[in-house]
Write a structure and sequence with these properties.
The protein has 123 residues and is of the alpha/beta class. It contains four helices and seven strands, in the order βαβαβββαββα. The protein is 39% helix and 23% strand. The protein has a five-stranded parallel beta sheet with strand order 2-1-3-6-7, sandwiched between helices. Strands 4-5 form a two-stranded antiparallel ribbon. α2 packs parallel to α3. The protein is globular, with a radius of gyration of 13 Å. 30% of the residues are buried. Residues 8-118 form the Response regulatory domain.
Length: 123
């Protein structure tokens, strides 16, 4: 089983309070917050350059689809989990094999999805 302790996370979330909550959850799981972004341009740049082990990606950034970030992460082979308040129906078909968390979510749900995507990469 994958150990989350020490893994570097990219958090992409446009709601400040939600981003802080997610970062706190990740820290509780033993992860490190490598970078955080609230807008598409910053998220794309960090997805291209940040030294990260995985990402948690809000699907909708202030009304703009975050699929360009997902594409960059996929090209880099960086595992990621979508977080969305719109349900899995909003996830584009080309990313349907990536797990999603429905907001609001709890710590155990976050842990389970991260383990799923990280084990898939190493498995």
């Amino acid at each position: 089983m994958v150990d989350l302790a020490g893994l570097a996370a990219l958090v992409v979330e446009d709601e400040g309070a939600v981003a802080l909550m997610i970062e706190d959850m990740l820290l509780d799981l033993g992860c490190e917050i490598a970078a955080s972004a609230a807008d598409l341009d910053t998220a794309c740049e960090l997805a291209r350059t940040a030294p990260i082990d995985f990402a948690l990606l809000d699907l909708n950034l202030a009304g703009v689809a975050a699929t360009p970030v997902a594409e960059i992460l996929r090209q880099r082979a960086v595992p990621f989990v979508f977080s969305t308040g719109y349900g899995t129906a909003g996830i584009p078909q080309e990313f349907s094999d990536y797990p999603a968390l429905a907001k609001p979510f709890v710590l155990n749900e976050l842990r389970d999805k991260l383990l799923l995507v990280l084990e898939k990469k190493t498995g």
